[in-house]
Amino acid sequence: MNAPTDLAHLLPNVEQREVPEAFLAALQARFGQQCSTALAVREQHGRDESAFVSVPPPAAVVFAQSTRDVADAVALCAQHKVPVIPFGVGSSLEGHLLAVQGGISIDVSRMSQVLSINAEDLTVTVQPGVTRKAVNEAVKSEGLFFPIDPGADASIGGMTATRASGTNAVRYGTMRENVLALEVVNARGEVIRTGTRAKKSSAGYDLTRLMVGSEGTLGVITEVTLKLYPLPEAISAAVCSFPTIEAAVRTVIQVIQLGVPIARCELIDANTVRMVNAHSKLGLREEHMLLMEFHGSPASVKEQAETVQEIASEFGGNAFEWAVTPEERTRLWTARHNAYFAAIQTKPGCRAVSTDTCVPISRLADCLLDSVAEADASGLPYFLVGHVGDGNFHFGYLIDPDNAEERRVAEELNVKLVTRALKLEGTCTGEHGVGLHKMGFLLDEAGAGAVDMMRTLKRALDPDNILNPGKIFDTPAALRATP
Ligand SMILES: Cc1cc2nc3c(=O)[nH]c(=O)nc-3n(C[C@H](O)[C@H](O)[C@H](O)COP(=O)(O)OP(=O)(O)OC[C@H]3O[C@@H](n4cnc5c(N)ncnc54)[C@H](O)[C@@H]3O)c2cc1C
């Protein structure tokens, strides 16, 4: 495999498109102070949390405050055939936001209103810039919560666009299961609606599901209706240490196969526990560990915990340590969510090349254990965390972004891991999406016919290819899984 040393290797022959002066003048006339061409603002919108070396930033950033603003900005882009990249909070990990063909960014973070809470129906409708934590703040007085929790406090628009999930997906599903309806600005700048607040529908093509995971390539999401859940009557969280990663993984496989309705089931390897302890000032045992949470009635939580404890002890798991109070639980899960930042801080100036494979639960040990051995043998520092109840885990190989050899080694590990996951009937990306980084892997996973169908849909809905062009399948891809 020829691993890339910088973004140019991922994007051969891609040219920036022209952004005409007349277009920028029209944009500034319409948006005034809401449109910025300051370099620092453009640079901040031209990158994400990935390890990619930047391409030139977008030519301007529009800070939309309403659906009308989004529609007018996209209509101007359509008129001048200028690329437009929607921006939530910029926490994506696969190069999603890079302006590889130039154009402008539409930042929707100021569209941050919770529009309506329908407690009786367990739904909430929000603007796309509302973050997942803000949704939970808004609904908690109703005794409700929204479970999807990527580590970053991402925007609901961005989470919808990447089909995100997080630690609770093992019980509550991903954005795919939890988005009921959308308002979207299409490539012509027109406003359309998909879905309703009804729990189910057979009305025509499922455009909601088409938009969920479309990574800004089919439209700009301007409103999202989400499912909510009653706050569980009882919640308890526990950590359990294991002598080996294999013991932890075998425990998880059995818990899932037995149908225990566990709400969270996360793996952290010993090295990452050390990083988390140092960063979050915790005193977790520095061994391979499962972090778990149980939701339900007091009796069912007790029963679930007892079952899991029994299984864990069969595999040599140490006694559970419980996080009983809400404060202790929050501290534990915040530390888990900050594992990425804890790891980044151990190597000044580094970036993480993140992996995101997900396999059927019965194949989890086969996929994970060989990949751990390869990562150890490589000599690269890394962190390892996983939503293992879903068969999904992440290595973050910590590289100096200017060090070509480190990048090559990290990408080679990633290729081997994806190759293994695909052979085990899994996916190259469980939750982060394709962006730029996984375009070749998508081809390996879905096949040329399926990718061609995606491209046909894209062409039909965005004939001038202005919506986040160059992503998912649009560019010759350098990184491929090996047959
Ligand atoms: C520390 C850390 C932990 C993470 N953990 C997880 C995790 O556990 N699970 C997980 O799924 N992800 C995780 N992520 C990745 C990231 O948080 C998610 O991909 C998130 O959904 C991105 O949301 P955002 O608001 O940052 O979107 P952005 O990064 O701003 O955008 C992401 C993509 O969505 C598009 N987009 C954004 N807003 C809109 C809109 N309104 N309409 C149309 N398209 C839009 C963009 O064009 C881009 O293609 C993590 C990231 C970090 C840094």
From TrEMBL:
Transmembrane portions of the chain: none
Cofactor field: FAD
One Gene Ontology term from the biological process aspect of the record: lactate catabolic process
Sequence ranges assigned to domain FAD-binding PCMH-type in this UniProt record: 54-231
Molecular functions (GO terms): D-lactate dehydrogenase (cytochrome) activity; D-lactate dehydrogenase (NAD+) activity; FAD binding
EC id: 1.1.2.4
Top enzyme class: oxidoreductase
One Pfam family of this chain: FAD-oxidase_C
PANTHER family noted in UniProt: D-LACTATE DEHYDROGENASE, D-LACTATE DEHYDROGENASE, MITOCHONDRIAL-RELATED
Protein name: D-lactate dehydrogenase (cytochrome)
Annotated organism of origin: Hydrogenophaga intermedia
Lineage, highest ranks first: Bacteria, Pseudomonadati, Pseudomonadota, Betaproteobacteria, Burkholderiales
